[in-house]
Here is the input.
Amino acid sequence: MAGDASDFRILITGECGQVGEALKRTLAPLGELYAPTLEDLDLTDTQATRRAVREFRPRWVVNAAAYTAVDKAESEPELTFALNATAPEVLAEEAKKIGAAMVHYSTDYVFDGAKETAYVECDPTGPLNVYGQSKLAGEMAMSASGIAHLTFRTSWVYGSTGNNFLRTILRLAREREHLRIVGDQRGAPTWSYDLARLTAHAITQIEGVAAHHQCSLQEAGLAVSGLYHASGAGETTWYGFAAQAIAELHAIEPDARLATVEAISTSEYPTAAKRPLNSLLDCTKLAEVFGWRMMEWRQSLTMVLGELTR
Here is the structure.
């Protein structure tokens, strides 16, 4: 690690989101954190964003902020692109000027879902909705910036905090008798805390290389810069995720009256934004470069349910 903790500053955006909350826990041991709230920093204000980086002068910028309301994004494309494409571009520009490195998060929704097997990083993209298009634009901005950066593509993020599929399903399972859940979209749920742990691991590893070789952070970071798939291990569907969660909740609370679950097709559950049928991401590159394997989704689900039912 370069310098002591007082010299090691990390700017975290999206501090109130699932990943942002987890990042504050995993990155705190590395140095001084600046995690502005939405009131403190409006990322759609480019001048305010530039000023935040210039004044705090972080060694790392970890951008967990995003517009994630997938269906609402269809009617708010300008705001979606402002947060998901322009903001990371501005952050990267300013970070590069001071020699900082950056971590950014993207999504399985950059793909069209037509591939039969899991996607690798170099597969052609083809987002089906505004959200996916904006996140792809953010990826491209990061790549074009020339900054030392890591872009982690992930999928189906959930955790014990924030708004997510799991917490919604558990609430509805207590309120209703029967749930109909899409069963023909394949993917892998990803625990927000596991993604945050990966981030701390990758930063520590790059810093270790910089210290060992006595080179700059940019030199160490550029050697491994680029896209990495980082989603939970294994495979399921939204129906499979919901059914497993409810089954485990019932095992924890055997006397609880919980909803039954039925699998339906995507066509039976129309949404404003079209979703890919295949969201599986191949995380081999992540294991090869950083020696990191994401948690199997059932294992992380059990841990999150443990947090939620304590």
Q: What stands out?
A: Residues 9-164+189-235+280-296 form a domain with the Rossmann fold fold (CATH 3.40.50.720). Residues 1-6 have pLDDT under 50 and may be disordered. The longest strand covers residues 101-107. The chain has one domain: 9-164+189-235+280-296.
